[in-house]
Fold:
Amino acid sequence: MLTKGKIDRKDLFWLGLLAVFAAIPVTPWFNHSSFAQHVLIQVFLYSSMAQAWNILGGYCGQVSFGHSVFFGIGAYGAGMAVVKFGLIPWPGILAGAVIAAVVAVAISYPCFKLKGHYFAIATFAIVEIFNRLFMVWYWVGGAIGLDYGFTQPGWKNFVWYQSKVGYFYGVLLLFMLVFGIVRWIERHRFGFYLRAVREGQETAESLGVNSTRVKLSAMALSAFLAALCGAFFAQYNYRVDPPMVMSLDMSMKFVLITILGGLGTFYGPLLGAALLIPLQEYTRAYLGGIGGGVDLIIFGLLIVIVVVYQPKGIMGILDRILNGIRRSRSGEGGK
Amino acid sequence: MKRNGKFVRSLFLVMAALLAVGALSGAAFAEEKVIKIGTLFPLTGPCALAGQRCRAAVETAAEVINNAHPGMQVPLAAQEGILDGYKFVLVHADHQGKPDVAKSEAERLFDQEKVWGIIGSYNSAATKPASFVAELKQKIFMCGCSSSGALTERDFKYFFRMAPTDKTESLEFVEFIEWANKTKNSGIKTVGLIYENTEFGKHAAEEGRMAAETGGLKVVADVPFNPGATNLNSEVQTLKAANPDAVFGACLGGDYTLWVRTMKQMDWLPKAALNYCTGYQDPIIAGQLGDDANYFMGGTGYAPEFAELMPAVAAVEEIYKTKTDPSVPFDSDSIQEAVALLVLAQAIEKSGSLDPTVVAETLHANEWESPLSMGGKVAFAPGGQNLKAMSMLTQLQGGEYKRIYPVDLADTEPVIPMVPWKDR
Structure:
C-alpha cells in the first residue's frame, strides 16, 4: 500500500537516528580517537555504497558484481577534476556520477537480456575490462593513478588534513542522500515496481510493468549513487588508481555488506557495514601487525558464521529476536 | 532464543577481546624512555613475504641499537640505546599492498599509537599516501626500498629514501651495455621492456625507455602485464616476435619465476636480461629456478656474495637470520630497511633532540656512515633521495650472484650472450 506523503514510525525512527549521528562529533569519544573517526567515516561510506547497490541487487533482484566500475568512474571524476584540470572537485563529482549512470545503462542494456547467474557473470567480466582499460589509459594516469597535491582544506576543495570532522559531515550528507532516496523509493510506486520485478519478471510484465525500463532506471540510479561514493573515496584518500577502485575486491564489498546486513531491506546495508567495517579495521589494526593474516582469518570466520547461521543477514537475526519477544509477550511462546 | 543469546554473547566476547588488546597496546609505553617507530609493510597479500622480511630487517636494526654489541662495526652498536638510554620500540602495521589502507594505517600509527616516525612501505604505491600523511603531520618517514622516482620528486621535507631509484638502475643498465658493446663486442642495439603494470613497474619502464633512448638504443618492445599473472605466454610471445637484444625486466616475486619459465618454454632468450630490484634479487626464487636462473643479470644492493666488500654486514645478518622463518640472509630490499633505522638513530643521536624538524634538518645536513650500504655512506638530496645510493650489476652464475659491473668492483666476467636453454 502506498503511504505517500505521510511520516510513519519508521521515518521518525530514521530521523531520530540521523540526529544522533549528526551529534556524534560533539561527543568526547569522537574527539579522543582519530582512528574511531576513520572507522565511523568508513561505516557511513560503505553503508552508502551497499545501499546504492541494494537498489538494484536487493530491491530489484539483479545481482551485479560490476559496481566497482561505477564507483571507480566517480572516483576518477573527482580525481581528474583536481589532479588533471586543477579545478575544485565538485564539477568532476557531478560529471563522474552522470557518466557512471550513462555507462551503467549502456552496459546493462545488453546484460539485462541475461538472467540470474549469467547476468552476475557478465558484470564480473565488466570489472576486469574496465580495470585493464584504466590501467593502460595514460590520459587518466594509467597504472600510476592520480595523486592529489596539497591544497587549501575546506568544503570548497572537499579535503581536510588536520581534522576528520569535515569528512564526517560530508559522508553523513552522502549517507542521508542515499538512504533518503531509498526510503523514498520504498514508499513510491517505483519501489513496488522494483519488488515486482524481483519477485517475477513475467508476472510483473503481465500486470503492465515495463521490466526493462524499471531495471535500467534502477541501474542508472544505483550507479549514480555508487559514483558519488567513489568520489568521496578519492577525496578521502587523496589518490585514485585502478586497483584501488575498479577491482573485484571492491565489488565484493558492495555485495557482501548488503548480504550480511540483509538483502532488500532498508537498514540491512547500515547494519552490515556497522558489523563488517569495524571488524575489518580493528582486526587489521590490532592483529595485522603480527603478520600471517590472523585478522583476515577472524574476519572471514565471522562472516561464515553469520551467513550460515542466518542467510537473511543481521536483519533476519533481529527479526527472529523481535518476533520471539513479541510471541513471549503475547503468550504464544513457551517451550 | 537460546541460540540467539549464545551468538550475541560470543560476538560481545570477541569485541571485548579486541578492545582489550587495543587498550593494552596504547598504554604500555607511556612513561618509559622509548622512541616508538611504526613499521608499515605488506604483511599479507601478494608481497607478504617481502614485507615480512622488511619488518624483520627493521627489528634487527632496532636490536642492534637498543643493546650493546661491542664487536659490531656499525655506528652506535657498541652502546646501549641512544640519547642516554632511549630505546626503539616498534609498532608493526600491515597495509596489505593497498594505498588506501597504507594511508589509514599511517594515520592510525601517528594518532593512535603515537609513533615518532614510520619506516616503510615496500610498495611505491603504498609509500606515496603513507608518506603524504607523515609530511602533513611533520613527522619523519624513512623509506628503505620503494624505488619509484616520483617519491623523491615531491620536495617533501620529512621523507628520506635509502635505495637507488629506477632511474639510477636504468642508467647503470645502459652504461653496462655501452661497456659490453665496446669491450665484448656484444652488439646490443635494441631493448625490450617487460614490467608489471603498477606504479613501480610503469616508472621503471619509463626510466628504462628514457635511459635506453638517450644511450642510442632502440626500444622495440614495451610489454606491461598485470601483477600476479597466471600466464605470460602472450607477453613473452610479443618479446620473442620483436626479438630485442636486451630486455629490462621489472617482474616481482612469482611473476619473475613465471617470466623466466615461459621464456624457457618458448625457447627464447635475449642476449642480456637486466632486472630492476625484483624477483631476480631474491635468493629463494633463484634457488627455486635452479639452473634456469643462471645468466640473468640485475642491479643488486646486497647479496651474501658481497661479504668481502661489506664486512660489517655479517654480524648484523646473524641477528636477521634469527628473525626470518625460514632463516634467510639479507636481500637488496630488506637491508635498506635496516639502513633506514640505523641512519635515523645516528641523526637522532647527533641532533640530540626528538623534535622531528630538527632531526629532519640534521638528516639533510650531514653525511652518514652506513656500513650496510654499498659505498658505505648515506646523504640526502632535497626531496629525500639518498645521493650515495648505488647498486652493482650482478649475474647469476652457478646459482651465485657474481659481481660483473662496475669493472673495478667486479669479481667475474659477464656471460654475454646468455647461454641458450638447449645448451644448459
Remarks:
- The CA atoms of residues 193 and 260 of chain B lie 14 Å apart.
- Confidence is low (pLDDT under 50) at residues 18-28 of chain B.
- The first helix of chain B runs from residue 2 to 27.
- The first strand of chain B starts at residue 34 and ends at 41.
